[in-house]
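Workshop exercise sheet. Pairs work together: one partner reads the sequence aloud, the other fills in the structure field after running the prediction. Swap roles for the next sheet.
Pair: D.N. / O.F.
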Amino acid sequence: MSTALSINAVDLHYGAAQVLKSVSITCKPGRITAVLGRNGVGKSSTLRAITGINTITSGEITFGDEVLRKAPPYKRARLGIGYVPQGREIFPLLTVKENLETGYAGLPRADKNIPSYILELFPVLKSMLGRRGGDLSGGQQQQLAIGRALVTRPRVLVLDEPTEGIQPSIIKDIGRALQFLRDEKGMTILLVEQFLDFCREIADDIYVMDRGEIQHAGLASDLDLPDVRRHLMV
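Structure field:
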């Protein structure tokens, strides 16, 4: 099977502090890959390295046949990496429709529209297109953040803790949406999470991080192994 996104032996420093140590992750096309770990182990830093927000110290990140090197975030977005940041980062004073339209920035004129499947996946957004983003609940804002990333027509969707602070019913909606994107759209998905049951339900492949290093790589069924769970204990 070919590789959609590959992180090879990546090191990342914040000043003198090393936060990623020889991290390698392979995201296979049309699969959901989850990176799990406790708070502060380097999960979000890994995504910020992939999206170009943080510059890696060494190693290599490849997207399909393209080596990203020092490509800035906007170039990575144009290549097809869609990013849903932790905390959602929607624009509170813009309407839901305007938030979605911010995804147009890197698109050719012909693609500057909101694909109908996004509003079918998240019908609450369709009913609130004229509402300000800041008026939405946390779960609705998370759906909006995912919808905004999908407007960019990503080939790989990268999500940072999409279940954080979200009510259970919306977590189920988000899980179903990610499975739809994988199964019906053939999208490759990479997410970082702490919610084990969510990952067990939707992920195909898992990586477990601890202290900036990958401690385990395997199938989602490995989450039931005692030595894997040990790295996830608080």
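Discussion prompt: The CA atoms of residues 121 and 177 lie 6 Å apart. What would you look at next?
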